[in-house]
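Researcher: Sequence recovery benchmark, item below. Answer with residues only.
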């Protein structure tokens, strides 16, 4: 019986990993991409994707050949959204940030060791950074949202992540050495907001502020992204103040919904 349980858990883990890979981009992912990122064999990936499609959780786009999320995933997401009304609560703040700053504003959630972008609002400034969009995932400590959240985690939890940093950060590790991450976390904790000086993509800057749950833990983050000249030192205090004001408002509203 124990062996069956382990095997079942392994299948569930594989399916969850495949769904995460495919949901990162609206256009989905090609089979070769899913195989490469999952580390599974091609026959195993194809069998699991086909099974998920039969259940309506995935579709196979005949035009592009990509695997994309299916109608059942939409229905599940709609039910989850009703339980966690973050869009209704966070969207007004995103609009205010985008309008007042001109930049692209985002709302991200922590999922284990990652942040996942949930919402986006574009500002009127015509030149944008396209590093971040709905569904994009980054390891905690990477990008402005992940830095803002990790900076307010308990020290013991931070150290657990930093102790296996190369494994945790993956391909982002070379541009995010542990010493730099530690400095950024300390500065974020001091200022209240994070600054990503083009570490994910050269020339694309970001700033973030954590949003807290009823236990006072950082569970979400607001962020702004744009080109480097729009995030120079003399403007960072202004952007940081706006982020903190809106993050505080969202924190209060989210906590009230849990009462």
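Model:
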């Amino acid at each position: 019986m124990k062996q069956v349980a382990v095997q079942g858990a392994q299948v569930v883990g594989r399916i969850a990993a495949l769904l995460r890979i495919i949901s990162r981009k609206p256009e989905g992912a090609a089979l070769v991409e899913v195989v490469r990122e999952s580390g599974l064999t091609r026959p195993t990936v194809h069998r699991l994707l086909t099974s998920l499609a039969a259940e309506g959780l995935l579709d196979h786009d005949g035009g592009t050949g990509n695997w994309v999320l299916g109608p059942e995933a939409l229905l599940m997401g709609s039910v989850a959204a009703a339980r966690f009304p973050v869009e209704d609560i966070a969207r007004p703040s995103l609009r205010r940030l985008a309008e007042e700053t001109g930049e692209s504003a985002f709302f991200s959630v922590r999922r284990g060791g990652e942040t996942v972008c949930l919402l986006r609002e574009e500002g009127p400034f015509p030149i944008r950074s396209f590093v971040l969009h709905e569904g994009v995932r980054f390891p905690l400590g990477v990008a402005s949202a992940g830095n803002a959240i990790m900076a307010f985690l308990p020290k013991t939890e931070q150290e657990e992540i930093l102790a296996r940093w190369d494994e945790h950060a993956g391909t982002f590790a070379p541009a995010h050495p542990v010493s730099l991450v530690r400095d950024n976390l300390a500065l974020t904790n001091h200022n209240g907001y994070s600054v990503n000086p083009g570490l994910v993509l050269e020339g694309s800057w970001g700033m973030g502020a954590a949003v807290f749950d009823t236990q006072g833990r950082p569970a979400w983050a607001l962020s702004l992204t744009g080109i480097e000249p729009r995030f120079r030192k003399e403007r960072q205090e202004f952007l940081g103040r706006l982020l903190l004001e809106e993050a505080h408002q969202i924190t209060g509203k989210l906590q009230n919904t849990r009462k």
